[in-house]
Amino acid sequence: MSTIRLTMAQALVRAMAAQKCEIDGEVLPIFGGVWGIFGHGNVAGLGEALHGVRDALPTFRGHNEQGMVHAAVAYAKQMRRRRFMACTSSIGPGALNMVTGAGVAHVNRLPVLLLPGDVFANRLPDPVLQQVENWGDGTASASDCFRPVSRYFDRLTRPEQLIPAFNRAMAVLTDPAECGPVTLSLCQDVQAQAFDYPESFFAERPHRPRRQGPDARELADAVAALRSARRPMVIAGGGTLFSGAEDALARFCAARGLPVGETQAGKSSIPDSEPMNMGGIGVSGSSASNELAAKADLVLAVGTKLQDFTTGSWALFRDQGMRMIGLNAQPFDAAKHRALPLVADALAGLEALDQALGDWRAPAGWTGEAERVRAGWREEAAAYTALPGAEQNAAPSDAQVIGAVLRTAEPSDVVVCAAGGLPAELHKHWRTDRPGGYHMEYGFSCMGYEVAGGLGAKMAHPDREVIVMVGDGSFMMLNSELQTSVMLGHKIIVVLLDNNGFGCINRLQAACGGAAFNNLWRDSLHQKEYPSIDFALHARAVGAHAEKVAGLSELEDALRRARRADRSSVIVIDTDPMATTQAGGAWWDVTVPEVSVRPEVRASRDRYEAARQHQRLGN
């Protein structure tokens, strides 16, 4: 057996560079690059190794470890999990900063390879700088925090352990069912240790996504359930996009007269212009989707994990006999809530259903009802996104800002968001006919994802305009990768909606009967006059173009200028923290205190108890 003597770190990056994928007939490196912030836990070992392969495996320097993981996660999401990135940090705080990003990847089932530095395997310098010591466990380190948010975790304490660990890592990163973050915690002395690795370990290796077909019996059960349904509908989840099944889904639903509700992850998996697209479903969904969901007697859930925002905390479906078919590559998701499991790749499953159903269509009356409620919803939604009338004295709403962005948008645009009130408004109002035109991180709904996520989306699709919509609260959480976008030349447009605080949670606080407290600046205890933050000046300070606009017309003009700009732009607009789209939406289970001196809380508890009566039990 031919071998080559390399350090563990050198072997790791060479193996990474040898991994390939095929997209539209083109063979590409499966790793789009490595994000790295160096410290004593990785600069000498992995840093030296990355320098040696920088032409084949580029390294990008971030400003914040959490931000660079967000960028990597967004890249993988936009690439539909076909390509992904790695992230490396030092030990201690650098590693722990990546854990939140790992949680984002884990919840959203997205691949990213995390390479935190770790303590010395030989333990001679213990405790090393930044080492977390556990008095009851000599094997513990800060990297153990990655265990619950990793699909696969391994700590490399000998250089030869890299071979099985890396092979397992690649299997998880490329598996449609297991996919998620992988952590290889690299002891810093082991990174620099040499071993005679087999040359075959570095041979080019192609990875092709598995397309598992459905079990014949599960398929037969699903077909029988659809044929017997009187009011069937479809929920399109993110797995539809990961599978590349969007065209098949659109054809399937159009031919069968099946209305479709989109999850946050699944939005853009069916064109907005498709007559059977009812828009978002659930807590942040449209009145069209939610009205039909309440009546549906069968739901075909395609590629969705059915989180509570999708199901209205399982109070959305009111038909007592409603059945569900779970078409999903992951058996855990397919069988949720006593669904008929149809374990398969979304595209393979839809094609099998389509063939087996023959000329079956949903009842004409049900399809007609879907068309009517869709038309009603779109008329209603248009009023929320229209320019305000002369009588409006308050600052514009989030929906009105979305309307302004849409009026200047191109079909290829990608909107990126994650947290606050904007996800609900965008789920209802953003319109796109292009897959990937809606990029919402709503599995974790991680504040601070937006700017870094926009950068990752742009790196995945440099030919598409990426528009980040973000509130002031989330922007303040993490904005440093704005400078990274300027430094790397990956231009994004940031529309920053400033409502002077955490407007979304302030509204939730009020809905639960709570007093306005600690969310908006004016309701905090810091000082009598809340501060005014010059976000445009901040953006200019890190090299971006920036301006603050006085209204929606100015916003549209600024967006056109931003499109022509040669670098990232930030456009700031003041918005009303109280205004929100009242149409659409569904109940969400946020527990209200049983006992309170506030009558508003007691009234909210009564409403809460009434709403809970609709939750489905025994699932």
List the helices and strands and how they pair.
Layout (H helix, E strand, L loop, with lengths): L2 E5 H10 L1 E5 L2 E4 L1 E6 L6 H10 L6 E3 L3 H14 L5 E6 L3 H15 L4 E7 L33 E5 L5 H12 L7 E7 H4 L2 E5 L6 E3 L8 H13 L3 E5 L1 H6 L2 H11 L3 E3 L14 E4 L6 H9 L2 E5 L5 H4 L11 E6 L2 H4 L5 E4 L2 H12 L6 H22 L12 H10 L6 E4 L4 H8 L8 E3 L8 H12 L5 E6 H6 L3 H8 L4 E6 L4 H9 L23 H7 L3 E5 L2 H13 L4 E6 L24 H14 L7
Parallel strand pairs: 2-11, 4-5, 4-6, 6-7, 7-9, 8-9, 12-13, 12-15, 13-14, 15-16, 16-17, 18-19, 18-20, 20-21, 21-23, 22-23
Antiparallel strand pairs: 1-10, 2-3
Helix pairs in contact: 1-2, 3-4, 3-17, 7-13, 9-13, 10-14, 15-16, 15-22
Description:
- The radius of gyration is 25 Å and the shape is globular.
- The model has no long low-confidence stretch (mean pLDDT 95).
- Helices cover 38% and strands 18% of the residues.
- The chain is α/β, with parallel strands linked by helices.
- α9 runs parallel beside α13 and α15 crosses α16.
- The strands form 5 sheets. It has a 6-stranded parallel β-sheet, with helices on both faces.
- A hairpin with a 2-residue loop joins β2 and β3.
- It is an enzyme of class 3 (hydrolase).
- It comes from Rhizosaccharibacter radicis.
- Belongs to the TPP enzyme family.
- Keywords: Hydrolase, Thiamine pyrophosphate.
